[in-house]
Design goal:
Helices cover 21% and strands 30% of the residues. With 159 residues, the chain is an alpha/beta fold.
């Protein structure tokens, strides 16, 4: 359970986009983006510091995150930290795929391959010339994009 906080601390929800660099975390009050964190360092180094700062400044009501596809390690670290915070502080965790935050453009995979969303299916295509790693935190948090199926999307190419 979260400890009692002074009344001056706002209730907030956070959205974590940790599928590639830079890590982006948005803080939402009444579904409106009020604070933005963008870190170029590795997710494993940046996310704990960002979450610690947010928890000192806001009372968290819900966590949202982009569960993939993208960097396997970044997704794994993001999920473990978000799930741990969710359990430890009794905060609900919701997820959606990363295409919701890059205009549904292809996402870089390994080498010259990329992840592409076709309907509800996400596939890996070879020989991608263009892909988008430009993920944007929305100005308004649309919680209808998310669901409680928060397990990461580990889509790995065949070896």
């Amino acid at each position: 359970m979260q400890e009692a906080l002074p009344k001056s601390i706002l209730d907030a929800e956070i959205l974590i986009i940790g599928v590639t660099s830079p890590l982006r975390v948005g803080v939402y009050v009444d579904k409106k983006l009020v604070d933005l964190y963008e870190k170029e360092e590795k997710t494993s180094r940046a996310l704990p510091a960002v979450l610690s700062d947010i928890r000192q400044r806001y009372h968290l009501k819900a966590l949202y995150y982009a569960k993939g596809p993208g960097s396997f390690m970044a997704i794994k670290v993001t999920y473990v930290m978000a799930k741990t915070l969710s359990i430890a502080c009794d905060i609900p965790l919701y997820a959606t795929d990363a295409f919701a935050f890059n205009g549904h453009q292809p996402i870089k995979a390994v080498g010259k391959s990329c992840f592409v969303k076709r309907g509800e299916e996400i596939v890996i295509e070879q020989g991608c010339q263009a892909y988008s790693n430009n993920f944007v935190l929305p100005e308004k948090l649309d919680d209808t994009l998310f669901d409680e199926a928060s397990e990461p999307l580990y889509i790995l190419p065949a070896v």
